[in-house]
Amino acid sequence: MTRPRDRLRIAIQKSGRLSEKSQELLASCGLKFRQSRDKLFCFGETLPVDLLLVRDDDIPGLIHQGVCELGIVGRNVAREQTLAPSDAPVLEELRDLGFGRCRLSIAVPQEDDYTGPETLAGRRIATSYPNLLGDWLRRHGVSAEIVVLNGSVEIAPRLGTAELICDLVSTGGTLAANQLKEVENILDSQAVLVGGAVEPGDERADLRELLLRRVDGVIRVRESKLLMFQVGGADLDAVLALLPRGGEPMVAMLAGEGPRHAVQVVCHEPVGWPQLENLKKAGASQLLVLPVEQMLQ
Ligand code: ATP
Ligand code: ZN
C-alpha cells in the first residue's frame, strides 16, 4: 500500500464493543468517510483523514509499523501489547475517551478463601492478558502459572484448564454465572486514543493536532452541563463559592420583590444530586441542569 504523505490514518475496531462509539466520536469530530467495498479502508471526505476498520488487537501493531498514525483501543489492549517482552509497539495514550469502561480482574471460585495475592502462589490462572497479569504478579512477588487462552476464559475453571482466571469485567454478571468472584482489580480500562511517535517535520503532525483539539472539544461537551438557578442577594456569594468547576457564571437581576438573581453557568464537572443539594442548602432554588449540545470557545 502506498501512502500519500499528507493523509492521516486512524484505525478503529471493525466490529465489537468499541466500534459504534468510536465511529460516533469520529463523526462528532466532523469526519465523514466513504466506505470502500471491502469495508476495511474508508476514504475521508471532509478532512485528509482515512479510516481503517480492523480487529482491535491489530491496532497497536499497525501504529508501530507506521501503517496508521492513530487508533482507538481499550487501555487493556494498549498496555498488554506495550508490555510484550519482544518487539513491543511504541505507543502513546493520548486521550481517555470515556467509553468501553471495564476492568481487568482476577477471579476465583466462589467457595475459595481468598486472603490476598499470596493466595495465588503456585496456582494456574487462565487469561488472554499474560503480560499484564505477569507484570502484576511480579510486582506482588507472587509466582503462579499463567495459561494463555484467547477467548471464553471464564469457563476455564469448569473445564479444568485452570483454577482461576484473569479477565475483563464490566458488570460482573458473567463471573457470577460461572460461580466465580472477583478478588483483585489489576487494571481500570476504557477506550483510549493512541498514537505512535510523530517524526519531526511530518506534515501530518498538524492534522493530528487538529484532530486532537476536536476530540478535546467533543469530550468537553460530553462532560459539560448548563446549570441554572435562582438565589437571593444575601446568599449569592456563598452559592457562587460552591459552584462546580466551569465557566464564568452569568448573574442577572430578577424582576420582583427583593434582590433576587438568576444564575447560569456551564459546568465542566459532574453535577449530581449531592452538588445540587449543597447549592440548595446554601440558598439556591429552582435548580435546572441541562445538557450542552455544542460549544465553541
Ligand atoms: P476483535 O474481534 O476486534 O478482536 P474482541 O472480541 O477482542 O474483538 P470486544 O469483546 O469487542 O473485543 O471488546 C473490545 C474492548 O471493549 C475490550 O478490549 C475492552 O477494552 C472493552 N470492554 C468493555 N467492556 C467489556 C467487557 N465486559 N468484556 C470485554 N471487553 C470489554
Ligand atoms: Zn480483540
Short description:
This protein is α+β, with helices and mostly antiparallel strands and 297 residues long.
Q: Would you mind describing this structure in some detail?
A:
The chain is an alpha+beta fold. The protein has three domains: 4-99 and 191-221, 3-Layer(aba) Sandwich (D-Maltodextrin-Binding Protein, domain 2), CATH 3.40.190.10; 102-189, 3-Layer(aba) Sandwich (D-Maltodextrin-Binding Protein, domain 2), CATH 3.40.190; 225-291, Alpha-Beta Plaits. It is 26% helix and 32% strand. The protein contains nine helices and 16 strands. The chain has helices spanning 19-28, 59-64, 75-82, 130-139, 156-159, 173-177, 204-223, 236-241, 273-281, and strands at 8-13, 33-35, 41-44, 49-54, 70-74, 92-96, 102-109, 124-127, 145-148, 164-169, 180-189, 191-195, 225-232, 250-253, 260-267, 284-291. The strands form three sheets. The protein has a seven-stranded mixed beta sheet. It has a five-stranded mixed beta sheet with strand order 9-8-10-7-11. A hairpin with a 5-residue loop joins strand 2 and strand 3 (41-44). The two termini are 39 Å apart. The structure holds adenosine-5'-triphosphate (ATP) and zinc ion.
Question: What is the topology?
Answer:
Layout (H helix, E strand, L loop, with lengths): L7 E6 L5 H10 L4 E3 L5 E4 L4 E6 L4 H6 L5 E5 H8 L9 E5 L5 E8 L14 E4 L2 H10 L5 E4 L7 H4 L4 E6 L3 H5 L2 E10 L1 E5 L8 H20 L1 E8 L3 H6 L8 E4 L6 E8 L5 H9 L2 E8 L6
Parallel strand pairs: 1-4, 1-5, 8-9, 8-10
Antiparallel strand pairs: 2-3, 3-4, 5-12, 6-12, 7-10, 7-11, 13-15, 13-16, 14-15
Bound molecules: adenosine-5'-triphosphate (ATP) and zinc ion.
